[in-house]
Amino acid sequence: MTHLLILGGTSEAHHLSHRCAEMGILTTVSLAGRTRQNGDYAGQVRIGGFGGADGLADWMQEHSVTRLIDATHPFAHAMPWNAFQASTKVPVPRLRLLRPRFVRRPGWSSAPTLTAALHALSPGTRVLLTTGWMELDAVNQRPDLDIVVRTIEPVATLPRHVTAIQIRPPLSLQQEHALLAEHRIEALISKDSGGTTAPKLQAASEFGARVILVDRQPHPPGPTVETPDQAVAWLNASVAFQI
Ligand code: NAP
Fold first, then answer.
1. 222 burial type by CB count under 10 A (0-12 exposed, 13-18 middle, 19+ buried)
2. What pLDDT digit, counting tens, does each position of 5-29 carry?
3. Distance from the alpha carbon of residue 182 to the mean position of ligand 1, in angstroms
4. Ligand 1 atom having least distance to the Cα of 79
């Protein structure tokens, strides 16, 4: 019997869990538990870390997992490598579901890290950061910027040159425009999370704000698809092969 483990935390994982439920596949979705809302996933849901690659391998063995789909966020650094190592150890066929990068618009630029993106700005720039709560220490290196940090969950104490706003996406294009206007934003720093062009990026372009995308880190080798539909096709093919 197929038991699919989806490493989640993305809209793709959510969509895939529902497709798998429709197909009658026994599915467990695993979430890190970073946000208070854990979404309306189909199938079983487990929450919290496994304890590294070995912990994940043990969990998969204990729960007779036969397929692993790593649908974590493009900026999840550790989990894709844990999944790679654990799937080799058990072994279990693994697929990476990774949405494509944003299609670049003229004038947008890239930076390898948040720190590098901040250093690309002139003193006094009013910049909106939508890069999340992690790695926010980088703002300490640019006290000469006016920084607005937008996060889903509240962030701990920030220096005086940083204003924190808490927003749960998605925002409409109109709402993104209003936010940029309210804070008189001149530059937007966003992760290259990818997918369809996010309203925040479109709004920033239209608003005349500079857009800097923080690049993704390298991901483990192995089969990779971009959409839940492609993941379902992989699953069908690999399960048919299993029979
Ligand atoms: P990460 O660096 O890959 O993960 C750090 C640790 O969190 C992992 O070593 C693992 O702990 C645990 N973990 C991560 N994803 C997990 C999952 N799906 N199920 C169980 N444990 C998980 O990832 P992150 O950047 O901290 O992100 C955490 C989660 O938020 C991910 O699931 C990701 O899909 C989602 N997310 C991340 C971002 C982002 O920008 N980074 C944005 C949106 C959503 P153990 O080693 O103990 O197993």
1. middle
2. 999 999 999 999 999 999 999 999 9
3. 32
4. 3
